[in-house]
Amino acid sequence: MTLAYKYQALKSFIFKIAALSVLPAALLTATAGLAAGGDGEGGESSRLALFYSASLAGNFEPCGCSGNPTGGLARRAGVMTSYSDQHSHPILQVDAGNFFAALGPGSSMVNELMTEALREFPVSVLNLASEDLHYWDQLSALEDLPTQIISTNLTPRRSSRALPARYAVVEIEGSRLGLSRNLRIGFLGVTDPSRVKPNSGFRASNPMQAIAQVKDEVLKEADWLVVLADVEREAKTIATDSFFYRLAEAHPEVKLIIHTEKRYVLFPPEEAGSATVLGGVERGRQLARLLLTLDNQGGISDMEQEFFELKEGVPEDEQWLQRQARVKLFTQ
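The structure corresponding to this sequence follows.
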């Protein structure tokens, strides 16, 4: 399997989609949170686009960076709609965690907007990570949220609180991928126990042991596994004694590990044993896409990672611009 890495500041991408109208983000919804691609491109039946993010931390609008504010839900919605219009392969969105804003003035309104984003983009799977735990009671009470919120190694300290699902399985119709049967991808979500605060209301078990306990059960339903991890990556190169490498060595069924990232850094895909390790970008300033080419058994034969910088000039969804403006008005 070959790995390709490409950083794109969206210039050529903007030129390609400039003539397209931007559709409401709600039109991206499909069965089980899987977005349906358009009919504008042929010969893509063996491809799956996995868009991933991490560490948004409630940043619903472009960052306040001087000179080049990036990010924002309206830009993400616009880019996703335009991409879906241009490509016929299935699209899946996931998040490695730390999606919600920390407790503070206006945080409840911000997090309501973030929840709408989960529903409408849609994000199929979210890892309930260390900075999301304060919002778990509100999330667990929602009955119409299409996002599967998981944690493989976190457990509420009070038995009266809802328990997050230990894993999720996303199933994609084989006919959309040129396969004779459906593709089933299993997702596990883990958090470094040292990141779980004493007052979070949760206890964390050893991530490696937690994965080992549920892996066989997940593999009864899934063809291969993805781990969403709220775990620090110390360097570009994956050391053999790192969590990521040890995870891949112990569980060869794990093909992708997607981790949170609190720094502004773009990591290229890095192989660790049988897995490929990928990092999100903090505050949603970049949207990452992993284009997977599948073999006739649904395994990954090739992949290409690409970062789209959500900068000025990117298509913005008008409905989301209005929502952002309303929330900003009441949270300033």
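The two ends are 49 Å apart (CA to CA).
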